Amino acid sequence: MLKETQSIEIDKLVEIYKENANKDTALRMKSYMKNHFTFLGISKPLRAELSKEFLKEIMKIKTIDWDFVFKMFEMPEREFQYLAMEYLRKLEKHLQKSDLEMLEKLILTKSWWDSVDALAPLVGILCQKYPELKEEVLEGWIMNSNIWLKRVTIIFQLKYKNKTDTEFLTKAILSNNLSKEFFLNKAIGWSLRQYSKFNADWVKVFIATHSLSPLSVREGSKYF
Hints:
Blueprint: H1 4-19, H2 23-32, H3 44-58, H4 66-74, H5 78-90, H6 99-107, H7 113-129, H8 132-142, H9 147-155, H10 166-174, H11 182-196, H12 200-209, H13 214-220
Helix pairs in contact: 1-3, 4-5, 5-7, 6-7, 7-9, 8-9, 9-11, 11-12, 11-13
Protein backbone atom coordinates (compact mmCIF):
# COMPACT_ATOMS: atom_id res chain seq x y z
CA MET A 1 0.00 0.00 0.00
CA LEU A 2 1.02 3.60 -0.49
CA LYS A 3 2.70 5.08 2.54
CA GLU A 4 1.03 8.22 3.91
CA THR A 5 3.93 10.47 2.93
CA GLN A 6 4.00 9.03 -0.59
CA SER A 7 0.26 9.50 -0.90
CA ILE A 8 0.64 13.17 0.00
CA GLU A 9 3.36 13.66 -2.63
CA ILE A 10 1.26 11.89 -5.25
CA ASP A 11 -1.71 14.08 -4.45
CA LYS A 12 0.51 17.15 -4.84
CA LEU A 13 1.74 15.97 -8.22
CA VAL A 14 -1.80 15.25 -9.40
CA GLU A 15 -2.76 18.78 -8.42
CA ILE A 16 0.28 20.23 -10.19
CA TYR A 17 -0.61 18.33 -13.35
CA LYS A 18 -4.14 19.68 -13.25
CA GLU A 19 -2.88 23.23 -12.67
CA ASN A 20 -0.84 22.94 -15.88
CA ALA A 21 -3.73 21.74 -18.02
CA ASN A 22 -4.17 23.31 -21.44
CA LYS A 23 -7.58 22.86 -23.05
CA ASP A 24 -6.48 23.54 -26.62
CA THR A 25 -3.57 21.13 -26.38
CA ALA A 26 -5.81 18.58 -24.69
CA LEU A 27 -8.24 18.66 -27.61
CA ARG A 28 -5.43 18.14 -30.12
CA MET A 29 -4.00 15.26 -28.11
CA LYS A 30 -7.42 13.66 -27.77
CA SER A 31 -7.99 13.94 -31.51
CA TYR A 32 -4.57 12.43 -32.27
CA MET A 33 -5.45 9.45 -30.09
CA LYS A 34 -8.72 8.95 -31.98
CA ASN A 35 -10.78 10.29 -29.04
CA HIS A 36 -10.05 7.21 -26.96
CA PHE A 37 -8.84 9.19 -23.96
CA THR A 38 -9.25 12.42 -22.07
CA PHE A 39 -6.14 14.58 -21.76
CA LEU A 40 -5.03 17.46 -19.59
CA GLY A 41 -3.02 18.80 -22.48
CA ILE A 42 0.47 18.59 -20.97
CA SER A 43 3.31 18.09 -23.44
CA LYS A 44 5.94 15.42 -22.85
CA PRO A 45 8.74 17.90 -22.00
CA LEU A 46 6.52 19.67 -19.48
CA ARG A 47 5.42 16.35 -17.95
CA ALA A 48 9.07 15.43 -17.50
CA GLU A 49 9.76 18.75 -15.80
CA LEU A 50 6.75 18.52 -13.50
CA SER A 51 7.45 14.94 -12.42
CA LYS A 52 11.25 15.08 -12.21
CA GLU A 53 11.59 15.63 -8.48
CA PHE A 54 8.72 13.30 -7.65
CA LEU A 55 10.25 10.42 -9.60
CA LYS A 56 13.66 11.14 -8.13
CA GLU A 57 12.34 10.86 -4.59
CA ILE A 58 9.98 7.94 -5.00
CA MET A 59 12.64 5.90 -6.81
CA LYS A 60 14.89 5.94 -3.74
CA ILE A 61 12.75 3.11 -2.36
CA LYS A 62 13.98 0.92 -5.25
CA THR A 63 10.89 -1.26 -5.21
CA ILE A 64 7.93 -0.95 -7.50
CA ASP A 65 4.86 0.50 -5.87
CA TRP A 66 2.09 -1.16 -7.84
CA ASP A 67 -0.58 0.66 -5.83
CA PHE A 68 0.77 3.90 -7.26
CA VAL A 69 0.90 2.49 -10.78
CA PHE A 70 -2.68 1.26 -10.72
CA LYS A 71 -3.88 4.45 -9.08
CA MET A 72 -2.47 6.36 -12.04
CA PHE A 73 -4.19 3.99 -14.46
CA GLU A 74 -7.48 4.67 -12.72
CA MET A 75 -7.16 8.40 -13.36
CA PRO A 76 -9.25 9.59 -16.33
CA GLU A 77 -6.57 11.72 -17.96
CA ARG A 78 -4.01 9.92 -20.13
CA GLU A 79 -1.05 11.87 -18.77
CA PHE A 80 -1.34 9.94 -15.50
CA GLN A 81 -0.93 6.65 -17.34
CA TYR A 82 2.17 8.11 -19.01
CA LEU A 83 3.49 9.03 -15.56
CA ALA A 84 2.97 5.47 -14.34
CA MET A 85 4.81 4.03 -17.32
CA GLU A 86 7.69 6.46 -16.92
CA TYR A 87 7.90 5.40 -13.29
CA LEU A 88 8.07 1.75 -14.34
CA ARG A 89 10.80 2.48 -16.87
CA LYS A 90 12.85 4.16 -14.16
CA LEU A 91 12.53 1.07 -11.98
CA GLU A 92 12.73 -1.57 -14.70
CA LYS A 93 15.82 -3.17 -13.15
CA HIS A 94 13.74 -4.06 -10.11
CA LEU A 95 11.08 -6.00 -12.01
CA GLN A 96 10.50 -9.49 -10.65
CA LYS A 97 9.13 -12.57 -12.37
CA SER A 98 5.75 -12.24 -10.64
CA ASP A 99 5.42 -8.69 -12.01
CA LEU A 100 4.53 -10.06 -15.44
CA GLU A 101 1.01 -10.58 -14.10
CA MET A 102 0.87 -6.89 -13.21
CA LEU A 103 2.14 -5.87 -16.64
CA GLU A 104 -0.50 -8.05 -18.26
CA LYS A 105 -3.20 -6.23 -16.30
CA LEU A 106 -1.82 -2.89 -17.46
CA ILE A 107 -1.66 -4.04 -21.09
CA LEU A 108 -5.35 -4.90 -20.84
CA THR A 109 -6.27 -1.64 -19.11
CA LYS A 110 -7.18 1.36 -21.29
CA SER A 111 -5.36 -0.38 -24.12
CA TRP A 112 -4.04 1.52 -27.08
CA TRP A 113 -0.78 1.53 -29.00
CA ASP A 114 0.84 4.23 -26.86
CA SER A 115 0.55 2.33 -23.58
CA VAL A 116 1.05 -1.15 -25.04
CA ASP A 117 4.21 -0.13 -26.90
CA ALA A 118 5.59 1.43 -23.70
CA LEU A 119 4.87 -1.69 -21.67
CA ALA A 120 6.21 -4.20 -24.22
CA PRO A 121 9.91 -3.41 -23.49
CA LEU A 122 9.26 -4.10 -19.81
CA VAL A 123 7.93 -7.52 -20.78
CA GLY A 124 11.11 -7.88 -22.81
CA ILE A 125 13.27 -7.15 -19.77
CA LEU A 126 11.44 -9.78 -17.74
CA CYS A 127 11.80 -12.37 -20.48
CA GLN A 128 15.54 -11.73 -20.64
CA LYS A 129 15.82 -12.23 -16.88
CA TYR A 130 13.42 -15.18 -16.87
CA PRO A 131 13.43 -16.82 -20.35
CA GLU A 132 10.99 -19.47 -19.16
CA LEU A 133 8.26 -16.81 -19.18
CA LYS A 134 8.10 -17.07 -22.95
CA GLU A 135 6.86 -20.64 -22.72
CA GLU A 136 4.98 -20.27 -19.46
CA VAL A 137 3.06 -17.09 -20.34
CA LEU A 138 3.78 -15.43 -23.67
CA GLU A 139 2.97 -18.46 -25.80
CA GLY A 140 -0.51 -18.19 -24.34
CA TRP A 141 -0.64 -14.53 -25.31
CA ILE A 142 0.16 -15.43 -28.91
CA MET A 143 -3.10 -17.38 -29.15
CA ASN A 144 -5.12 -14.99 -27.01
CA SER A 145 -8.03 -13.20 -28.66
CA ASN A 146 -6.79 -9.85 -27.37
CA ILE A 147 -4.83 -8.05 -30.10
CA TRP A 148 -2.72 -6.09 -27.62
CA LEU A 149 -1.35 -9.18 -25.92
CA LYS A 150 -0.62 -10.57 -29.37
CA ARG A 151 1.14 -7.35 -30.35
CA VAL A 152 3.38 -7.56 -27.29
CA THR A 153 4.52 -11.08 -28.25
CA ILE A 154 5.63 -9.70 -31.62
CA ILE A 155 7.44 -6.57 -30.41
CA PHE A 156 8.76 -7.35 -26.92
CA GLN A 157 12.16 -8.28 -28.39
CA LEU A 158 12.73 -5.01 -30.26
CA LYS A 159 15.70 -4.10 -28.05
CA TYR A 160 17.23 -7.57 -28.09
CA LYS A 161 19.30 -6.80 -31.22
CA ASN A 162 21.29 -9.90 -32.27
CA LYS A 163 20.04 -11.79 -29.22
CA THR A 164 16.55 -11.97 -30.67
CA ASP A 165 14.93 -15.38 -30.24
CA THR A 166 14.04 -15.95 -33.89
CA GLU A 167 12.22 -19.18 -33.12
CA PHE A 168 9.82 -17.37 -30.82
CA LEU A 169 9.54 -14.40 -33.18
CA THR A 170 8.65 -16.76 -36.02
CA LYS A 171 5.98 -18.40 -33.90
CA ALA A 172 4.49 -15.05 -32.88
CA ILE A 173 4.43 -13.78 -36.46
CA LEU A 174 3.09 -16.91 -38.15
CA SER A 175 0.32 -17.21 -35.60
CA ASN A 176 -0.91 -13.77 -36.65
CA ASN A 177 0.37 -13.15 -40.18
CA LEU A 178 -3.01 -13.78 -41.80
CA SER A 179 -4.77 -11.27 -39.59
CA LYS A 180 -6.40 -8.20 -41.12
CA GLU A 181 -5.74 -6.27 -37.91
CA PHE A 182 -3.65 -3.17 -38.64
CA PHE A 183 -1.88 -3.14 -35.27
CA LEU A 184 -0.73 -6.74 -35.69
CA ASN A 185 0.47 -6.36 -39.27
CA LYS A 186 2.25 -3.14 -38.33
CA ALA A 187 3.90 -4.91 -35.38
CA ILE A 188 5.09 -7.75 -37.62
CA GLY A 189 6.70 -5.29 -40.00
CA TRP A 190 8.21 -3.32 -37.13
CA SER A 191 9.78 -6.40 -35.56
CA LEU A 192 11.25 -7.54 -38.86
CA ARG A 193 12.56 -4.08 -39.70
CA GLN A 194 14.25 -3.79 -36.32
CA TYR A 195 15.86 -7.22 -36.53
CA SER A 196 17.03 -6.54 -40.09
CA LYS A 197 19.53 -4.07 -38.60
CA PHE A 198 21.37 -7.05 -37.13
CA ASN A 199 20.50 -9.94 -39.44
CA ALA A 200 19.23 -8.66 -42.76
CA ASP A 201 19.73 -12.00 -44.49
CA TRP A 202 17.42 -13.77 -42.02
CA VAL A 203 14.71 -11.16 -42.51
CA LYS A 204 15.02 -11.24 -46.31
CA VAL A 205 14.61 -15.01 -46.35
CA PHE A 206 11.74 -14.85 -43.88
CA ILE A 207 9.82 -12.32 -45.96
CA ALA A 208 10.50 -14.25 -49.17
CA THR A 209 9.31 -17.58 -47.78
CA HIS A 210 6.23 -16.59 -45.79
CA SER A 211 2.89 -15.06 -46.59
CA LEU A 212 2.74 -11.62 -45.01
CA SER A 213 0.48 -8.63 -45.45
CA PRO A 214 1.69 -5.88 -47.80
CA LEU A 215 1.99 -3.60 -44.77
CA SER A 216 4.22 -6.08 -42.94
CA VAL A 217 6.41 -6.57 -46.02
CA ARG A 218 6.68 -2.84 -46.65
CA GLU A 219 7.61 -2.08 -43.04
CA GLY A 220 9.93 -5.06 -42.69
CA SER A 221 11.85 -4.23 -45.88
CA LYS A 222 12.55 -0.55 -45.19
CA TYR A 223 16.26 -1.02 -44.46
CA PHE A 224 17.03 -3.27 -47.41
